[in-house]
């Protein structure tokens, strides 16, 4: 009896709840893994391994021919120009939209729901979809990429700008308004000075993201390194592909360093930079203006011609061709299958990335693992998808693996920083009591970090649902594959239904992720 009571006292009271959660997770995740075509057999099939091995062997040595390096240099500059010009258009679009949805602009209250709906559409449709649509209108080249970035990033910037402005102290703006100032001036002089550093920091971060996005859009003919990479992969030219990948990784790392340096400078206390801030601001603004002008000049974009009456009529006719969407039962069944595949790709890819990212985050003090994380996150998902398709064949499993590889690099870095910031006292206490390193991590470090790790994972899931929707452009299943085929066949009514499904799925996942984060916090 005493022994029985002791065992009962030692029993974990939370064990039944954990077991129930595991069973529920298995019931929910099993069909999603099936929907993603998850198959370890395909991953380790000897024939597939030989194919991918032979292809990867062609990556060495990288191509260093003079003619190719000339094309590569031009494509690299074009990628930077697309990102810069796209961000300039996004900024021009974001400023008035942010004003309309900011609480300070109360005389425009009736426009608020309309503007928020517009922002949802701009952000919810992936930039690659916009690029593919604009390629159909304006033809191959960087114009499609610039316009696509301008729309998607304009929606993103406007939403975040509005949130930053609304989080500022409204008292100065309110005082100016009561003194007779118009609301735009009250916002300009009352809210903007408080939020300027944070607004600038986020804009710099988005420019870094735009560089990655501009590469991806090249896969649908929007110019830059992506278009060169797409050609190399289709020709199975591993030497050229490896040189392009190395160039892209250097470009991303350089942009990351520049972005972090600029954000650190912005985080410097005003008193530490007050004396030099005036002329530095002037030089920075001049450099930005010069960079934007040089980008448009290099791309040879005739912006006024895009807004002529003829161009407007052409665009209007193209937009009208998407309506009404195809709502036939047969097509809706196909779209529903695509929605399920896309959801499965995003969930399975994110879960695999979370496991791999956590494993790579554990030995964070070892330089080789840090390099692996940088490589994983620097290679775009579409590039990973072209490689994984060779390894496991076309279909959703290739998309899930591509998402997992890229996202593991992103989450691994975030996980490592979170684990490193955990207090050492609980772990040291368990170690001193005789626990091993693994047990100390599981019962001391991990519980404290779990909420932040889960929040990062849910945020990446929001991002991955958008990417999962377009991985089908390279044969990785889901809604993207449906959309690519229908646009290629000029079936715009069917394509419209797919785009609406993409938008609805993105909004639903955003809502679910936000609800889960609120429940955790």
Oligomer: single chain
Radius of gyration: 25 Å
Run of helices and strands = HHHHHHHHHHHHHHHHHHHHHHHH
Number of beta strands = 0
Mean pLDDT: 81
Low-confidence stretches: 3-10, 271-277
> What distance lies between the first and last C-alpha atoms, to the nearest angstrom?
43 Å
CATH architecture of the largest domain: Orthogonal Bundle
Structure description:
- The structure is a single chain.
- Helix content is 81%, strand content 0%.
- It is globular, with a radius of gyration of 25 Å.
- It contains 24 helices and no strands.
- α5 runs parallel beside α8, α6 (112-124) packs across α8 and α17 runs antiparallel to α22 (437-468).
- It is mostly helical.
- It has two domains: 21-57 and 325-521, MetI-like fold (Orthogonal Bundle), CATH 1.10.3720; 60-268 and 276-320, Orthogonal Bundle (MetI-like fold).
Based on the model shown, name its key terms.
single chain, 521 residues, MetI-like fold, MetI-like, ABC transporter permease subunit, transmembrane helix
Topology:
Blueprint: H1 2-10, H2 15-35, H3 40-43, H4 46-57, H5 66-101, H6 112-124, H7 127-138, H8 142-167, H9 171-178, H10 183-190, H11 192-217, H12 224-234, H13 238-267, H14 270-299, H15 303-306, H16 309-320, H17 329-361, H18 367-378, H19 381-392, H20 396-420, H21 425-432, H22 437-468, H23 478-488, H24 492-520
Helix pairs in contact: 2-17, 4-19, 5-8, 5-11, 5-12, 5-14, 6-8, 7-8, 8-11, 9-10, 11-12, 11-13, 12-13, 17-20, 17-22, 17-23, 17-24, 18-20, 19-20, 20-22, 21-22, 22-24, 23-24
Organism: Delftia acidovorans (Pseudomonas acidovorans)
Protein name: ABC transporter permease subunit
Keywords: Cell membrane, Membrane, Transmembrane, Transmembrane helix, Transport
């Amino acid at each position: 009896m005493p022994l029985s009571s002791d065992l009962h006292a030692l029993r974990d009271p939370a064990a039944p709840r954990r077991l129930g959660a595991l069973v529920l997770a298995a019931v929910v995740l099993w069909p999603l893994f099936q929907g993603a075509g998850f198959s370890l057999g395909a991953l380790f099939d000897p024939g597939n391994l030989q194919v991918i091995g032979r292809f990867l062997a062609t990556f060495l040595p990288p191509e260093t021919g003079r003619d190719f390096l000339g094309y590569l240099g031009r494509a690299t500059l074009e990628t930077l120009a697309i990102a810069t010009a796209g961000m300039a258009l996004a900024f021009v679009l974001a400023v008035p939209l942010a004003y309309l949805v900011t609480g300070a602009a109360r005389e425009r209250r009736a426009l608020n729901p309309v503007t928020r709906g517009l922002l949802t559409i701009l952000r919810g449709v992936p930039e690659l979809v916009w690029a593919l649509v604009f390629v159909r209108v304006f033809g191959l080249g960087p114009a499609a990429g610039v316009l696509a970035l301008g729309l998607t990033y304009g929606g993103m910037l406007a939403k975040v700008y509005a949130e930053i402005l609304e989080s500022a102290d409204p008292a100065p703006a309110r005082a100016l308004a009561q003194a007779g100032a118009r609301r735009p001036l009250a916002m300009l002089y009352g809210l903007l000075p408080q939020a300027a550093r944070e607004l600038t920091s986020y804009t710099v971060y988005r420019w870094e993201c735009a560089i990655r996005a501009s590469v991806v859009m090249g896969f649908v003919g929007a110019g830059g390194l992506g278009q060169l990479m797409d050609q190399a992969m289709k020709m199975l030219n591993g030497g050229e592909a490896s040189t392009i990948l190395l160039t892209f990784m250097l470009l991303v790392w350089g942009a990351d360093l520049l972005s972090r340096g600029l954000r650190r400078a912005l985080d410097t206390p005003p008193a530490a930079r007050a004396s030099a801030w005036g002329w530095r601001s002037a030089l920075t603004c001049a450099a930005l203006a010069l960079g934007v002008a040089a980008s448009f000049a290099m791309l040879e974009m005739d912006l006024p011609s895009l807004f002529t009456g003829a161009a407007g009529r052409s665009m209007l006719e193209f937009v009208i061709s998407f309506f009404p969407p195809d709502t036939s039962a047969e097509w809706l069944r196909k779209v529903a299958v695509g929605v399920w595949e896309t959801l499965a790709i995003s969930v399975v890819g994110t879960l695999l990335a979370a496991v791999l990212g956590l494993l790579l985050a554990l030995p964070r003090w070892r330089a080789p693992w840090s390099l692996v994380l940088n490589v994983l996150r620097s290679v775009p998902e579409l590039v990973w998808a072209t490689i994984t398709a060779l390894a496991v064949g076309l279909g959703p499993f290739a998309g899930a693996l591509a998402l997992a590889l890229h996202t593991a690099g992103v989450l691994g870095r975030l996980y490592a920083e979170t684990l490193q910031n955990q207090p050492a006292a609980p772990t040291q206490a368990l170690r001193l009591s005789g626990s091993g390193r693994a047990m100390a991590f599981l019962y001391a470090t991990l519980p404290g970090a779990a909420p932040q790790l889960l929040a990062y994972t849910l945020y990446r899931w929001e991002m991955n649902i958008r990417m999962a929707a377009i991985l089908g452009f390279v044969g990785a299943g889901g809604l993207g594959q449906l959309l690519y085929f229908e646009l290629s066949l000029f079936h715009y009514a069917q394509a419209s239904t797919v785009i609406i499904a993409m938008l609805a799925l993105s909004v639903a996942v955003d809502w679910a992720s936000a609800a889960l984060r609120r429940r955790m916090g």
